[in-house]
Specification:
The chain is an all-alpha fold. It is built from 3 helices and no strands.
């Protein structure tokens, strides 16, 4: 094996490490989409927390709010 062949083989091996071929059967994950999902999830959890706090804690809680019905 000549030096040129060894260098080309090492170069191909290193490129394979740094730039792996994507397999078409594997799903593709877009980082921007994952960030959007994370922001939407956190916003929905925040809205749910705010609504439950408003119902259960704000101005005396649920018992005071439905006290007029009983």
């Amino acid at each position: 094996m000549s030096l040129k062949e060894a260098v080309l083989k090492a170069d191909a091996w290193l490129r394979g490490l740094l730039e792996p071929e994507e397999k078409p059967e594997e799903p593709h994950y877009d980082p921007v989409h994952l960030a959007q999902v994370l922001v939407a999830f956190l916003a929905s959890i925040g809205a749910l927390y705010w609504l439950l706090w408003t119902l259960l804690v704000y101005q005396g809680g649920l018992y005071q709010k439905i006290g007029g019905l009983a």
